[in-house]
Design a protein that fits this description.
mainly alpha
C-alpha cells in the first residue's frame, strides 16, 4: 500500500485557495459597508431585503451563497480526511 506524500505544490495550492476565499469575503464585506452608512429605518428592519437597494441585495445574496459554498467545501474536505484516516485510501 503506497502512501501519498504531501508535496510543496499542494501546500501552495492550499494557501492560494485560502487567500482567494478570504479576498472574496473582504471584497463582499467592503461592498456591504455602504449599507451600514445609508441604512434608513423607515424603509424596513435592519438587514431586511426591503431596506436594501438592488446593488446591496446582490452583494447580500452573494455573500450568503459564498457562505454555503464554503460550508459545502469544508464538509467535503472533512469527508475526504475522514475517509483517508479510516480506510487509508
Amino acid at each position: 500500500m503506497a502512501k501519498k506524500t504531501f508535496r510543496f505544490i499542494d501546500f501552495v495550492y492550499l494557501v492560494a485557495i485560502i487567500l482567494v476565499d478570504v479576498s472574496v469575503y473582504i471584497v463582499l464585506g467592503l461592498f456591504l459597508m455602504g449599507y451600514d452608512d445609508t441604512y434608513d429605518s423607515t424603509k424596513g428592519e435592519y438587514w431586511s431585503l426591503s431596506s436594501m437597494n438592488n446593488q446591496e441585495k446582490v452583494f447580500y445574496i452573494a455573500i450568503n451563497v459564498w457562505n454555503v459554498l464554503n460550508i459545502v467545501g469544508v464538509t467535503y474536505l472533512v469527508y475526504r480526511i475522514f475517509r483517508r484516516v479510516k480506510y487509508g485510501t
